[in-house]
Amino acid sequence: MQSSNNLFPIFLKLENLQLLIVGGGYVGMEKLEAVVSNTPTAAITLVATQISTEIKELAQHYPNILLVEKPYDINDLADNDIVIAAINDPAISKQVVQDAKSKKILVNAADKPELCDFYLSSVVKKGNLKIAISTNGKSPTIAKRVKEVLNDTLPDEIDTLLNNMQSIRNKLSGDFAEKVKQLNEITKGLINPDDDKK
What we know:
Blueprint: E1 18-22, H1 26-38, E2 43-48, H2 53-59, E3 65-69, E4 82-85, H3 90-102, E5 106-109, E6 122-126, E7 129-133, H4 140-153, H5 158-171, H6 176-191
Parallel strand pairs: 1-2, 1-4, 2-3, 4-5
Antiparallel strand pairs: 6-7
């Protein structure tokens, strides 16, 4: 029997939550960059015994990032909603996961899919259009390649189209079903442009 991706896709309003990142090296920097590139105003606390110069330089541009240079302990989880263990120490990473689960806090452990409650996806962003790509933790490389294809395929003008569609949607009349019918008719040419020529 073929396995299936049973992950539930979700987009978080991270600016309304508190995020803890444990790890101040390369992996910590990678996760921190992923967060701020999507939600620059997210409230982030990053805890690590040593915090890299690159992370310190990045944090200078974001007043919402708090850097705490000390060893991780369970008290660092207080008031946080989500945790990312971004540390290259399996014992500490496992401890962060156990502590987070004991407090019912969602946790991601970098490069340890079996310990994760959620994954950070590969993301395609064109203005207001955002597409998250998941391989169920099997191959970040494939996710990266799919991202590159979509980035090349989707035109930069897609955001203008989204804004125009919002204006059109706001002007439509009728009940929900009627609006859906009208929007389907308007957008049909996006899927099959040749249909408009018939």
